[in-house]
Amino acid sequence: MESLKPIRTFLEVARQQSFSGAARSLGMTPASVTRIIGTLEQDIGRQLLLRTTRKVSLTADGAAIAARYAPLLQEFDAIGRELTQIRTDVGQLRINAPLSLGFRILPEVAAAFRLAYPRIRLDIQLTDALIDVIKEDCDLAIRISRPTTDKSTIMRKLCDVPRHAIASPSLFQHVPRPESPEDLQAAYTMSYAQDGGSESWEFSRAGVVRTHRAGTLVSSNNGDLLYGLARAGHGICVLPDFLVEPGVASGEVERVLPEWSLPELWLTLYYPPYEQLPPLVGTFSDFFEAFIRDTRGLRF
């Protein structure tokens, strides 16, 4: 609280016995500390601190004020912490997440979060559309996507998400196996895209970049649907590793052009343009980030 800043500054100078030490502790400049103390002494009409070249000490008046205000300020801070804890333990969170990620990860995340915070209600909506978190009245959105240039929202990148082109081995019984990106044909590549659009794949290897415009005979905004079609031998698609790795391990699908890399996606939390992250939102964000960091089985 700004009105308590002079008292807080005075008590820190008294504790440190140093203007420069208090400035470092409070994240201020020594000049600002000196000015605040001077104004406080002027307002009270008493000298509170004795300044020497070696240290700073309390006057009798300063000691009396410190003895009175120090416990009051400690109690004020304790009440503030208690109120913050209440706000982070009670309430409702509106979360939006993509379908594939939601099905695979969020049940475990939500179950663990509910055990830790049983009084927080979770409203989880799943959609692969890139929603407007402001219009949808959403507290936060979880997204796996390319880096955004949207300046109207706040974003928190959690990690990179590798991805590869994949297909069923059965596809190459009647379609030539591509040896380079130039060999890919739109007729048997499928797009992850909105509204029937096509997807651009940017392959790179040893500084060489090749771009392929995927076909639109099959396009979808859902990775599970594309994966099902690829697994059935209907074409090649590019999907995140976490979605396809069980199939790669079992041999149902294989990586196509494995020596070529594709730009990684980002696992990101998006927020409305909060001036300060609400405690409830911050609590879930920290919990989710820790879950992703510690659960390496997800292989992000």
Q: What portion of residues is helical?
A: 25-40%
The overall strand count is 14
Low-confidence stretches: none
User: Rough shape?
Assistant: elongated
SSE topology string: HHHEEHEHHEEEEEEEEHEHEEH
Describe the protein in words.
It is built from nine helices and 14 strands. Helix 1 packs across helix 3, helix 1 (5-16) packs across helix 4 (60-89) and helix 4 crosses helix 9. Helices cover 39% and strands 23% of the residues. The strands form five sheets. It has a five-stranded mixed sheet. A three-stranded antiparallel sheet has the order 12-7-13, with helices on one face. A two-stranded antiparallel sheet has the order 1-2. It has 300 residues and is α/β, with parallel strands linked by helices.
Summarize the helices and strands and which ones pair or pack:
Layout: H1 5-16, H2 19-26, H3 30-44, E1 49-51, E2 56-58, H4 60-89, E3 91-97, H5 99-104, H6 106-116, E4 120-126, E5 140-145, E6 154-161, E7 163-167, E8 191-192, E9 200-205, E10 208-213, E11 219-220, H7 223-231, E12 237-240, H8 241-250, E13 254-256, E14 265-271, H9 279-294
Helix pairs in contact: 1-2, 1-3, 1-4, 2-3, 4-9
Short description:
This protein is α/β, with parallel strands linked by helices and 300 residues long. It has helices at residues 5-16, 19-26, 30-44, 60-89, 99-104, 106-116, 223-231, 241-250, 279-294, and strands at residues 49-51, 56-58, 91-97, 120-126, 140-145, 154-161, 163-167, 191-192, 200-205, 208-213, 219-220, 237-240, 254-256, 265-271.
